Amino acid sequence: EMPLIKVNCASIPKDLFESEFFGHVRGAFTGAHQDRVGRLQLADGGTLFLDEVGEIPLSQQGKLLRALQEGEFERVGDDKTIKVNVRVVAATNRILVDEIKAGRFREDLYYRLSVFPLDVPPLRDRVDDIAPLALFFLEQICRDLGRETLRITQHQIAVLKKQAWPGNIRELKNVIERAVISSTGSRLRLDVAVSDSSAETFSPASTLSTESANFMTNEEFKELEKANVKAALQHANWKVWGPEGAAELLGMKPSTLAYQMKALGVNTQAASSTRKRFE
């Protein structure tokens, strides 16, 4: 197989950029105790992936342009020209056209790299990708942490889809990892990993208004609690137990929910029969 060399341009110090990309010979500078093969030479015959290409120092972009254009370069401290055949794939979160106008990125390098550009929309504009990505990260993180794969409910997927995701896929992965770490049972504790301020909150009792006061009576609180239980039951198709049941959605034991339903006067059989009459 041909080599795939990945380079994070943002992690390379400015003074070491030339050595990292093109290599150096022994004695080329202080600390160069032996010859070093650069990333371009390592990728010869294969692919060089330049991540965060917009972070390459302006002073080094000219030499990179020549290497990509002519397929040749010299190592630091060496006068021998090395020829390579490399396919280059570049990625950046910067708008390079704006970087060119600001004088931070060479226009000729931009057009050399922009042979077949792909504009990847932010995650918030790719809502259908959230569920498969969340499942992939969940399985991967559980495997890396050495624990059984946790279950994620449809309600939790719906919560994820309401996020703004300014950090895109990296933020989604971090949220899933934080939820896995916070989970003690088989149920994913997404509630402790997602900030309420960054998503639309689920408000089953939106008709109850408390704008006129900062408190409510005991009866008002019971009505709010009752509405919340009913909303969860409706979302779970009036199923209390099992995966994606109302108890799991509310984060409580089924026996606790059954006791609460009895205390609040919520009857699933009556609700189910009423629903059937209108079907």
Write a concise keyword list for the protein shown above.
single chain; 279 residues; mainly alpha; Rossmann fold; Helicase, Ruva Protein, domain 3; Arc Repressor Mutant, subunit A; 3 domains; three-stranded parallel beta sheet; two-stranded antiparallel sheet; disordered C terminus
Describe this structure in words.
The chain is mainly alpha-helical and 279 residues long. It folds into three domains: 4-113, Rossmann fold; 123-198, Helicase, Ruva Protein, domain 3 (Orthogonal Bundle), CATH 1.10.8.60; 218-277, Arc Repressor Mutant, subunit A (Orthogonal Bundle). It has twelve helices and seven strands. It has helices spanning 17-22, 39-42, 58-70, 96-101, 107-113, 130-144, 154-161, 168-182, 218-235, 246-250, 254-264, 268-277; strands spanning 4-8, 23-24, 36-37, 47-51, 72-74, 81-83, 87-91. The strands form three sheets. It has a three-stranded parallel sheet. A two-stranded antiparallel sheet has the order 2-3. Strands 5-6 form a two-stranded antiparallel sheet. Strand 5 and strand 6 (81-83) form a beta hairpin. Helix 6 (130-144) packs across helix 8. The longest helix has 18 residues, at 218-235. The N and C termini lie far apart (60 Å). The model is unreliable at 196-213 and 273-279 (pLDDT under 50).
